[in-house]
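2024-03-11 09:14:02 INFO worker-7 job=invfold-0412 stage=load source=structure_tokens
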């Protein structure tokens, strides 16, 4: 608790923390409202809801070679702030597109907004790395997990409530307002030039095609030659599958199997259960990160989450399903705290943007493939249960992979560090 209080005494961190929360909360409200709007309007075409999620993950693949280079070469604070401003404008255009009922334009604007948000995360995480000490990384990762749990806990419920109360257009306006608040918070931060521009001053004109490709290749080479980092990063393929599956399959199993008549109301309860589980799990993970080795906590959490995901597909009672979902929610923070607290420790701050620029596209690529897979084969070929088997099985497999390689590479990393010192 004392470490958390000391973090919040850092005004820059507090503002970045709140900016992350408001930005994510707004995005969740609008996206949740849009998904339920599409499920209501196109009830016999569940692929529309999947496409909505796809329009947030596919854009990352269109700009993946730029985001990390921009975060390392340009002003990180300026990038994060401008991403929020641009997302505000795109949300307002989306409001107009929904008002005139032009769905193709809605999906195009979602795609553009996803592309812009891709530049936000590497810049934001690089700023956070720069203003914290190495000992504070796991605690900050735990706090990030609490942010995630809060917007899961309240975002989905508020999104559905806003959809009922003020319609899809009103929910999108809340999106726009949240981006404005986030941008103002980031603008008010007073961060040194060394953190904002760790590789010196550059302008957008300096980023020629060859420079961008050279820097991106350098980021790939850095990851490839760092075996511990490479092992951690490779697991993000499965985390993308998890994110892609969870974003739609929980709604699908409620609507098409467990409780078709009142799935919207149950979705709110499920969101509360899931968010509460992640919130409690965040405190547990922060505590365990100081008592267990990170690779032990990580593999244990993967096994439990995978098993609970598979088990949740076998139950026929919505309350038993919620128990299984709660178990999954408890373990997810352990995964994120372990990786989120580990990567900043082993990555050179000058390379953080490019590392994040490689991690996010890798995860989004697998997330996009998962969503495309679901859109193409569900429900014609695949059952809703098989989606849970796919996601749960992948978690168990990566758990075995991490169990075999991480202890060895962690020991090698520590011995190399001692030799350098």
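2024-03-11 09:14:09 INFO worker-7 stage=emit residues=421
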């Amino acid at each position: 608790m004392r470490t958390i209080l000391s973090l919040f005494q850092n005004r820059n961190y507090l503002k970045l923390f709140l900016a992350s929360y408001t930005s994510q909360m707004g995005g969740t409200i609008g996206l949740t409202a849009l998904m339920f709007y599409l499920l209501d309007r196109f009830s016999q075409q569940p692929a529309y809801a999947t496409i909505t999620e796809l329009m947030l993950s596919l854009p990352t693949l269109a700009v993946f070679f730029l985001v990390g280079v921009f975060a390392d070469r340009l002003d990180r604070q300026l990038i994060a702030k401008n991403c929020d401003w641009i997302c505000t404008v795109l949300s307002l255009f989306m409001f107009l597109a929904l008002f005139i009922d032009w769905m193709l334009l809605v999906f195009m604007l979602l795609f553009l907004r996803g592309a812009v948000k891709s530049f936000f995360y590497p810049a934001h995480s690089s700023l956070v790395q720069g203003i914290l000490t190495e000992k504070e990384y796991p605690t900050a990762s735990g706090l990030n997990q609490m942010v995630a749990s809060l917007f899961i806990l309240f975002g989905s419920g508020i999104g559905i409530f806003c959809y009922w109360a003020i319609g899809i257009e009103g929910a999108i306006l809340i999106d726009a307002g949240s981006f404005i608040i986030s941008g103002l918070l980031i603008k008010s931060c007073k961060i040194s030039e060394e953190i904002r521009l760790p590789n010196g001053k550059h302008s957008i004109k300096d980023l020629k095609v060859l420079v961008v490709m050279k820097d991106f290749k350098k980021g790939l080479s850095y990851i490839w030659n760092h075996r511990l980092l490479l092992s951690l990063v490779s697991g993000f393929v499965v985390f993308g599958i998890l994110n892609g599956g969870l974003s739609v399959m929980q709604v699908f199993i409620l609507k098409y199997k467990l409780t078709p008549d009142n799935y919207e109301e149950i979705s709110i309860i499920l969101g509360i259960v899931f968010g509460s589980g992640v919130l409690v799990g965040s405190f547990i993970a922060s505590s365990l990160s100081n008592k267990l080795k990170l690779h032990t906590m990580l593999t244990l959490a993967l096994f439990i989450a995978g098993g609970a995901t598979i088990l949740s597909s076998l139950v026929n009672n919505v309350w038993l399903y919620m128990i299984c979902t709660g178990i999954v929610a408890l373990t997810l923070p352990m995964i994120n705290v372990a990786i989120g607290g580990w990567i900043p420790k082993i990555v050179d701050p000058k390379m953080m943007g490019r590392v994040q620029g490689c991690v996010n596209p890798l995860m989004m690529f697998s997330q996009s493939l998962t969503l495309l897979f679901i859109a193409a084969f569900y429900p014609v070929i695949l059952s809703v249960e098989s989606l849970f088997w796919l996601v749960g099985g992948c978690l168990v497999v990566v758990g075995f992979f991490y169990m075999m390689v991480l202890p060895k590479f962690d020991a090698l990393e520590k011995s190399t560090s001692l030799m350098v010192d």
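2024-03-11 09:14:09 INFO worker-7 stage=report msg="The domain at 9-195+218-420 is CATH 1.20.1250.20 (Growth Hormone; Chain: A;)."
2024-03-11 09:14:10 INFO worker-7 job finished
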